[in-house]
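Hi L.,

You mentioned the student needs an example of a multi-chain input paired with its predicted structure. This one should do, with 800 residues in total across all chains.
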Amino acid sequence: MTAMADTATLTRPAGPAAAAKPDAAVSVRGICKTYTDVEALRGIDLDIERGKLTTLLGPSGCGKTTLLKIIAGLIDQTSGEVLVNGRAVRGPGPERAFVFQDFALLPWATVMRNVAFGLELRGASKTEREEKARHYIAEVGLAGFEDKYPHELSGGMRQRVGLARALAVDADVLMLDEPFSAVDEQTRRKFQEDLIRLREVEKKTFLFVTHSIEEAVYVSDRIVLLSRRPGRISEIIEPKVDHRASPDEIRRDPHYLDTVESIWQGLRNYVE
Amino acid sequence: MTAPVRLDGHTAGALGAGQVAAAPARRASFDRPILWRILSVALVLGVWEIAGQIPINFAFPPFSEVFAAFLRMMADGSLPAAYAETLKPLVIGVVISTVLGVGLGVAMGLSRLSEWLVAPVFIVLQAAPMAALVPLLTFVYGIGLLSKTLAVILLALPVIALNGYKAIRNANPTLVAMCKSFLGTRRQQIVKVIIPDATPVIFAGLRLGVAAGFIGVMLAELLITPTGIGDLITYHRSVADYAEMYAAVASIVVLSALTLAALQAFEVRVLRPEKRGS
Amino acid sequence: MTIAGWRVPMMASLLVWLVLWEIVGRTGAVFLIPPVTGIVEAGIRLVQTGTWQQATFDTLRSYGLGMALAIGIGVPLGVLMGRSKPADKLLGMWVNLFVSAPLSALVPVLMILFGIGEKTVVATVFLFAVWIIALDTRAGILHVPKSLEEMGRSYLASPVQLYGKIILWAALPEILAGIRLGLIRGVKGVVIGQLLVSILGYGALFELYSRSFDMEHFWAITFMLFAAAMLLSSIVEAFEKRIEYYAGAR
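Structure written out for the whole complex:
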């Protein structure tokens, strides 16, 4: 399966990729989405840089999860196209992995099997997938919990399992749909810090959906602000937070606070 | 994510538009179930008709013949007369089961002692094949109305009583606590909070009781007392009038379905205002 | 229930009723009610007879065949209804009709279609059990969280994997609940079928004992049936408990 991902990368410059910027892992071209009588997204154009963490931020109902799921190939767009590594998306693919808001863990399977599940579906041998799963379970800080079941874990730990599962399939693009919304505040902060560290280690493209401004500014290289329904891109912000500083320093940094405030001022129009 | 958020200002426009858009959608989806239902009935009757025309079995008449037989039996009065015979024990049995069952159910729900003493009996009776006891009734009570009524009670009472019990036991504890906090007496608690709160579930039990009652009365008529619809079925079978026999069987199945549907409609309309329109 | 500080299990009250039954039986006041001890003795004698063994074998076979058919058809039917809107709309009405229909009225029809014999009893068991299994399976399938299915799709599960590794497992609590209810209904079906056919298994025994007014034997087989129904139900319930933890966690 990794072989398949590699071929995808190799063929990147061919075909429609010529239109995409060479360093864009994901290119969104004129995506519109209309449900029976609700227009959710209108004319989204977006390049998502390889190796960066991009956040889709916006008020509830702006269609940010819809956009993410269109990129994931879980929902069909009404018009437009999505290119991943230069190839048009027609459904889910091995080069993308999804982390779900409600974790989507198999309650009847252990942490080990859950993390290895993506590999199991690909027909990897038991030893191979367990070896890989063990590595990523350790990487997300759950070593020792391999034989536990999801109901024996806290919300934060469950989401780590979901994250490890996404990492284990070795995709280029990791998509996270409000991964911390079902997690308590303390866990959430710890998780955000881990995410930043993980991004350094894994060198993958992260695409992240959230409705928390602070979270977006804290973790992102780039923030894509979506307007209310029908969702359109209203602004793209690069927070330029220096992640070498300690988390506490960042959270007190005037630049960080100003960015949060200016985004809030921009969004205010939509919620008032 | 896509759920509309209640906001004011210029979101009100979007919300208003949503409501306008939702109205025709609801009308459309209201029309469709009827269409689907017609299609569904047509499909099954069509398959029945074709299977009967082939025929897949010498004793499987097509729907058209069965329907004709139904009209004949309605015209010559044999079906209405049989129904009068069948419905009498059914209604009496269900009424007695309701009074007794709801009474016992409420008692079990409210008193720990009666719960301990009575609930297990009904749990066993509900799981057990009570039909086995129907032949017994004949010895004691002969083949008259009383036997049939008892057969109905035998099958209907356990489910009504158990539902009543569960309904009372599961009455919303927050409401009970609310009543207590406003210094309601135990009597007020029961009459004004627990029983009204439990009514929909009790009524649902009644519906199950009626369904069980239909099974009971048919069993009694087929097994022990050749009267009513059961007799029509047995008689037409013995003289190989299969169309008439199928008509009698289908009519009782349809009647039971209509009765249950009517009870359910009543339940939704009167007892569960929160479910109305959904 | 607590008496003098001791927790008395709920089902213990059945003993009280049995003692009461014994007392009434001993007085001989009610012909229908022989003493419990007499019934138990009759039961022990009965179990050793070839007639009973043959009847039990016949009954178990009809029941087993009918239930296998009901599960084999009911679960796929429920899956179909849960997964396909048109199938649900076309079939839903009929499944709902038959789940609460007076199926005892249908047994005479089965008798002319399948003859007076085992096939009719099997068909009765099937008809009693299949609808509730289909309905509960459907409910279970509709209960499967959308995100679990999306997860399967996003990790490229094949249709077989999607059903075999995700959907059916996630719907398992409801499917098992349906099978439990189906098992209980199936017992009622086998009894009603055999009573109406009346030449087979326990139906023939009921016929025999009630004609000869042999109340002890009559109650002995009735109690056996009751006990079997309760036993079956509690076995499936125990199994359901083992997977209960994930019903809430889905």
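You could point out the following to them. Chain B has two domains: 1-60, 63-275. Confidence is low (pLDDT under 50) at residues 1-30 of chain B.

Best wishes,
N.
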